[in-house]
Amino acid sequence: MLTKGQIAAVYRKRAKNYDFTVQLYNILGFRIDSYRALAINSLQLKPRDTVVDIACGTGANFPMLQEKVGENGKIIGVDFTDSMLAKARERVENAGWRNVELVQSDAASYPFPARINGVISTFALIYVPEFDDVIRKGSRALVAGGRLVVLDFKLPNGWISRLAPLAIFDTRPWGLSKEMASRHPWESIAKYLKPMPVTERYGGFVFLTAGEREGSSLNL
Fold this sequence. Notes:
Elements: H1 4-14, H2 18-23, H3 32-42, E1 50-54, H4 62-69, E2 74-79, H5 82-95, E3 100-104, E4 116-122, H6 131-141, E5 142-153, H7 164-171, H8 178-181, H9 185-192, E6 194-195, E7 199-201, E8 206-212
Parallel strand pairs: 1-2, 1-4, 2-3, 4-5
Antiparallel strand pairs: 5-8, 6-8, 7-8
């Protein structure tokens, strides 16, 4: 399994053509934009809300998040890799958004601001060995009714699991490993938040999980 430094190097190398390359997976039926839309809708954001996008990459979630929070809301994009954040900054500047804050930080050490309305991570959190701690801290930062949503890869169940080695091989250029795909962020969400049903896409290779903070009395 790659170290954090090696993963950063992978994404630093791929940052320039990341958005184009990801869209090529549509040929294989991988509807990434549809999956992102489902995840963002699960946040149930409102105008003026503040949302943190963990491992935001090039900011692919930003346009849909902007539609939810509006110009008076706020998006905080956090990413470990300087080159990916540079592409995100370029996206923000080209769109003329004034409500986006970009932070270069390891997700594991990022200090979430207090009283945020949502946290989202798409196709990134299983890369973080400390994912449970990230979810715990993100949950603690939410206001009552705030949601934390994770969209990511997993190993499928049933007969289709026989295709897992091929899927891992196909995503190896992105640094994904079987160990990473075996991580279960939905179990962490169930520890710290009121969990929503876990849903699957792409034959069980993709999962969407969400949790909602019920109030300040949760033991986090």
